[in-house]
Design a protein that fits this description.
By secondary structure, the protein is α/β, with parallel strands linked by helices. It contains eleven helices and eight strands.
Length: 317
């Protein structure tokens, strides 16, 4: 299995996204998906403390709580076999990245996850009101305390990532090992032009989110009416264009040739990209999982990769 950056975290080349848990997937369904994911060889689960505060009746932490109840049901052996990645800075009760907030948010996540350590703890969004030195020192303290194994970055500008790395090196803080960017076949920039060089230079393992473009790359949204009432309609709308639909058509043709679903090809393309360790994709129901897991068994030809590259390059920024 690939390793996340310079860390000791060996992971299956697909991360199961936990953003649906407690939102569009109830606890029982979420547990079924997690069970099937592990049974098929998966071991890397991604979540965040804010998931899913946006849903009616939720307050944040629902996804972590469901993952925690699943981990607890499986005992120590299950926990030892799973790499848990979660993120902080956006939970309504722990907003921002001050030192006190980092410490409190971590403890709250540990309690919800029913575990004694977070394998990969990432800053979800930048907090420019707090000096980076303060945030990094707080994260480093969590590593030294054994509460966190590795540190990651998500949604920071390339300039701020370079500042983070320079400060960590200067102060002897734990270096980040992972970068979680927005990246998929219909959203290739700015990752490829601005973030990939940073990831390569500093050995950051890339775990892209929205790998399937909120479902757009599965082919189920061919017209605006198709997603008008979908839970992710606002997100899908950002990908919808004639050029984007041309990408879906190209993915469909290649999927047909391999006798797999469109999601499988979209993920296989990401898995073939330099620096990408494990794309993140979620399964709202059990039936969506096989197409995600199948990506690891698909090897795209040079011609297929070239077709996807050329078609997706035409999508406007």
């Amino acid at each position: 299995m690939p390793r996340i950056g310079s860390s000791d975290l060996d992971v299956y080349p697909l991360a199961l996204g936990g953003n649906t848990f407690g939102w569009t997937s109830d606890e029982s369904t979420s547990h079924d998906v997690l069970d099937a994911f592990v049974a098929a060889g998966g071991n890397f689960v991604d979540t965040a403390d804010v998931y899913s505060a946006w849903a009616p009746g939720n307050s944040g932490g629902e996804s972590e709580t469901i993952i925690g109840s699943w981990l607890a049901a499986g005992g120590a052996a299950r926990r030892d076999g799973i790499v848990i990645g979660t993120k902080l800075s956006q939970h309504p009760d722990y907003s921002g990245l001050s030192a006190s907030n980092v410490a409190a948010a971590a403890d709250a996540s540990l309690e919800r996850l029913q575990t004694d350590r977070i394998d990969l703890y990432s800053a979800h969004y930048d907090d420019e009101s707090v000096p980076l030195e303060e945030t990094l020192g707080a994260l480093d303290a969590l590593v030294r305390a054994g509460k966190v194994r590795q540190v990651g970055i998500s949604n920071y500008t390339p300039a701020r990532i370079r500042q983070w790395l320079a400060i960590a090196q200067r102060e002897g803080f734990q270096l980040p090992v992972a970068l979680q960017p927005h990246y998929n076949l219909v959203k290739r920039r700015p990752f490829e032009t601005e973030y990939a060089p940073v990831a390569e230079a500093f050995d950051l393992g890339v775990t892209p989110y929205w790998s399937l473009a909120a479902g757009f790359l599965t082919g189920k949204y061919r017209t605006r009416d198709d997603f008008a009432n979908a839970a992710r309609s606002g997100s899908v709308d950002g990908y919808f264009s004639d050029e984007g639909l041309a990408v879906v058509d190209a993915v469909s043709d290649i999927a047909e040739a391999h006798e797999v679903e469109l999601a499988t090809i979209a993920l296989a393309w990401l898995q073939a990209q330099p620096t990408v360790v494990a794309p993140i994709a979620s399964a709202r129901i059990l039936g969506q999982l096989p197409a995600l897991m199948a990506a690891d068994g698909v090897t795209l030809t040079a011609d297929e990769l070239s077709t996807l590259d050329a078609t997706s390059a035409r999508v406007p920024e």
